[in-house]
Amino acid sequence: MKVLARSADEPATTTPEGAERRVLSYGGTLMAVEFRFPAGVHAPMHSHPHEQIGYVVQGELDLLMDDVMIKLGPGSSYYVPPNVRHGVITRTACVLLDCFTPLREDFL
User: Fold this and answer.
1) Architecture of domain 14-107
2) pLDDT band at 37 (very low <50, low <70, confident <90, very high)
3) Are 9 and 17 in contact, with CB atoms under 8 Å apart?
4) 11-31 average pLDDT score
5) Parallel, antiparallel, or unpaired for β 30-37 and 94-101?
6) Which of 15, 22, 40, 67 is least enclosed by beta carbons within 10 angstroms?
């Protein structure tokens, strides 16, 4: 459990696509994770058993989900149901806040 977290104080893990991932607060079955993507990233389609809600803090991206592409910008949010294939293409550098339930044990 991590009750309080500040993004600037959390260590970053670099994803295969070159994004920085920082695990923020988590506990029980809920987790908040910050992603910082450079522009031009094509994050591959993937799925996981977790529910996911994301919020675009900064930047523009295309969210691909169920063969549909949706352009998102600052202030946009999205929901990804469990086991639904999804991915992103970043148009600009982006900061995303993703929340997962159950928490992503693979991120700890």
Assistant:
1) Sandwich (2.60)
2) very high
3) no
4) 97
5) antiparallel
6) 67
Arithmetic mean of pLDDT, 83-106: 97
Domain ranges of the chain: 14-107
Upper half-sphere CA count for residue 7 (Cβ side, 13 Å): 10
Percent helix, strand, coil in the chain, to 5, is: 5, 55, 40
Burial class of residue 86, CB neighbours in 10 A (0-12, 13-18, 19+): buried
pLDDT for 65: 96
Q: Please give the structure tokens belonging to residue 71.
A: 């352009």
As a whole number of angstroms, the distance between CA 89 and CA 55 comes to: 15
- Contact 48/87 with Cβ under 8 angstroms? no
Q: Could you give the CA distance from residue 57 to residue 81 in angstroms, rounded to a whole number? A: 21
pLDDT band per the 50, 70, 90 thresholds, residue 18:
very high
